Amino acid sequence: MSEQKHTVKGVDHVAYPTFDPAATVKFYRDVLGFPVVHSICAAGWGPEKHPDFIHFFFDIGNDDRLAFFYYFGLEPFDGGPQGDSYSRFTEDVPIFFIRSRHLAIHVDSEDDLMEYRRRLDGSEWPVEMQIQHETIESIYTHDPNGYMIEITRALRPVTPQEDLDANITIDALVDVVSGPEPSMAALLTRKAELIVERAEAWQQKQDEKEMVSNR
Amino acid sequence: MTTLFVLDVPENTPIAAVAGQDPAVMIDRVGPYYRIVSDAPIVIDRRATKARHAVWYSSVAGLHRSRITQWDKDAMRIEPR
């Protein structure tokens, strides 16, 4: 496990291209209420031919930002009937794969989640799914560029043992994918070995920590 | 011998409890995990656990010399390998 200092502070910005900045501004600023906090008007320059562009940023809370690039005169690229403004896929690519890449924005409460649901449902981009996952509840829609956006709240705080389990899962996964036939069965077998190796010692440390904090 | 590990988090508590209703099943703990053991197959009725699907399909933490032979909306069945 890493003993390095962990000093990063979340997402500065994530950036996507858009071919429809008007709808993008309507969706993020006017429907969702995400303030525009920064923009750059840049003349194309440099060694390659680069179009003039606008780089603009929405505040998604916590001082984190969602940014877009709009390139003047640039047309969407081909690639298939599925996907979004950045990546197009042919018909045979399954939807679970296409939806695997998405941005999830956090809210603190059910009221906040439902408020964003109301804003989306009153717009051209209504909520497509509302799902209670294992420990979070989420709403989903696609923005005007076809990017899947999730807004999510925690159903309860994450417990320390879930962090242990996550680390055991990932160590097991790294082992299993280096082996001949990666599968869920192989992963669960490797996890059982790691649980037996590590879980008792983890619990003892956890109990000691709790005793110290209760003193 | 069938051995199943389930992480002790609130959503999984009823799953371990339903598994333990079978008199052949013994449950102890390895750190924060339930270790659910039986000489026979372990069968858990999903509806009895009241687990929603996302919880149900992510509730198995580990399997020792055992394999899942059924894991659907009705039940989970685990047998010795």
TrEMBL record, chain A:
Q: What sequence ranges are listed for the domain VOC?
A: 10-154
Domain of life from the UniProt record: Bacteria
**One Pfam family hit:** Glyoxalase
Tell me what this protein is called.
Answer: VOC domain-containing protein
Its lineage opens with:
Bacteria, Bacillati, Actinomycetota, Actinomycetes, Mycobacteriales
From TrEMBL, chain B:
- The protein's superkingdom reads Bacteria
Kindly provide the name given to this protein in its UniProt entry: Uncharacterized protein
